[in-house]
Write a structure and sequence with these properties.
This protein is mainly α and 96 residues long. The protein has one helix spanning 17-95. The chain has one domain (16-96).
């Protein structure tokens, strides 16, 4: 096989350190940015879990309080009706 090199000899496939430094720096920056994004994602995910749990417990408490309030209102109404009927039934008997 015949090879004739004219001019200076260039070795293809080899890069100089000066050419690799900006590329290495940008790859390192991308790694750091990706790690920061990953950390932020995990923080936000955990924060969402905590807030969801808080929201669900608060919602449960509100439902329970509303049910108890409705039961208390119905009980008071029944008691008032019973008491008023008893009051008027005693009056009718005393006047006769």
């Amino acid at each position: 096989m015949y090879n004739a090199h004219v001019g200076h000899h260039v070795v293809h496939g080899r890069a100089l350190n000066q050419q690799l430094d900006p590329l290495t720096e940008s790859v390192q920056n991308a790694k750091e940015y990706t790690a920061a994004m990953k950390q932020e994602y995990h923080y936000q995910k955990n924060r969402e879990i905590v807030h969801r749990r808080t929201n669900e417990t608060t919602s449960h408490r509100v439902k329970l309080y509303s049910a108890l309030e409705a039961i208390a209102l119905i009980a008071c109404s029944v008691f008032q009706v019973w008491y008023i009927r008893k009051l008027f039934s005693n009056r009718d008997r005393s006047f006769v």
